[in-house]
Amino acid sequence: MARKHGINIDLDQMLAGLPAPPAPPSPTKVAPAAPVAPPAPTTVAEVAAAPHIVPTTPKATATPGAPVAKSVPMPAPVPMVTVRIPTLSPDTATIQVGPMPSSDKQDKEEDDYKHSPLSAIADQAMNGYFFFAAWGALFLALSYAAAVRIAERESARYRAAARDAELKALRYQVNPHFLFNTLNSLSTLVLKDKPDEAEKMILNLSTFFRTSLTADPKEDVTLAEEIRLQRLYLDIEAVRFPERLSVDIQVPETLKNACVPCLILQPLVENAIKYGVSRSKRPVNVKIVAREDSEGLVLSVEDDGEPIDDNGASKGTGVGLRNVIDRLRARFGDEASCRHGPLPNGGFGVTIFMPLIRDGR
């Protein structure tokens, strides 16, 4: 079949028309002579002028007196095909060797299959399969994401509940200690026959507990409210130490709306009374100071009582001081800190640092 720029040759048809190669000759007992093959054509013109080559098998000849060689089977010769194209120019002609193009009948069969109902059904089935597979994968992904979100919310809720329980336990841990000391003071007043002072102490104690117990331990109060609660406590202790206790509170007006954990100062003030005032024979001043610096809000409680020896309070292992440190860590994490230790001129001081958060922010 000729084309515009070349000729397609069906090699199968050409090889089918060639004669079958002859069977290999029977082995002889003479040495085979080397056949002399004609030179192969090298140009297109020589190919065109060369005669049709038919495969042949060289014949063996015997030489008298020559030794007899062992018989060696000869391999079957490979058929050779010579194509003669005398009418084509070597500069413009091309030969393409390959499979024959499909026939019109085959194209028609393929076209009929593409437009057949069976092909449409197969295409719809494949499209539906991938569609449902995609929807299934999307559904599984959304379900997994929802389950992860639910688990995270539950975990956050449990952590918040544990944190609230911890804050409540730490906050209420102070009250029994304080109540024990106050009841001892009331007992002393009754024994000394001081009913008016005992009545005042009971009223202050009632107000202090009502205010402290109704406040939510996981919520903050303003610094002004915290100072008011500490004044109630110091008024109760002043009944016990009327000659030895003096109070100095320094809180700027600009910091009275700062938010602090409820009763965060009470254990520090209680320690100042317990270790500074009660153990001293002279007047002791308890100072509460609030200030603002680059780290935020700074609160300090100091006393100028007798020097404290190497006991639990000075090491920070007392219940009250440990309570303050734990509450600060639970409320602010690493943003809050606490420093404590003996003062150079005697007494003991505790300074806490926390973020400055104002009420209404």
From TrEMBL:
Q: Which UniProt keywords apply?
A: Kinase, Membrane, Transferase, Transmembrane, Transmembrane helix
SUPFAM superfamilies in the cross-refs: ATPase domain of HSP90 chaperone/DNA topoisomerase II/histidine kinase
Gene3D superfamilies recorded for this chain?
A: Histidine kinase-like ATPase, C-terminal domain (3.30.565.10)
Kinase found in the keyword field = yes
The domain of life is Bacteria
**UniProt keyword annotation of Membrane present:** yes
TM annotation in the entry: 129-151
Please list the coiled coil stretches: none
Instruction: Identify the stretch(es) annotated as Disordered.
Output: 18-39, 91-112
Which Gene Ontology molecular function entries are recorded, alphabetically?
phosphorelay sensor kinase activity
**Start and end residues of each Signal transduction histidine kinase internal region domain:** 165-245
Q: Name one GO cellular component term.
A: membrane
Where is the Histidine kinase/HSP90-like ATPase domain positioned along the sequence? Answer: 264-356
Matching PANTHER family: SENSOR HISTIDINE KINASE YPDA
Its name, as the record gives it, is: Sensor histidine kinase
